[in-house]
Give the backbone structure.
Amino acid sequence: MKAIPPTGEIHQLDFLFRDAGNLPVPTTGHQQKISLHFDDADHLTESLTWRSNGKDSVEVLHLTRTKP
C-alpha cells in the first residue's frame, strides 16, 4: 500500500493498494484501500475497502480516544 498525502494541513490519509508478491490473481480478496480521517483531536474514522472478485466492500470504524 502507498499513502498519497494531501498538500497543506492533513485531515485525511488514503493508502492505496499497489501490488502484492503473494497474490495469485487480481481477483483474490485483498485490502484495496484504507482511509484515515482525523475528525478532531479525539476522533478518528477509518474506512477499510476489501476487494474480491472485482467487488468492493467497505467497513467503517469510528474510534474515540478515552480520557484517563
Summary: The chain has a mean pLDDT of 92.
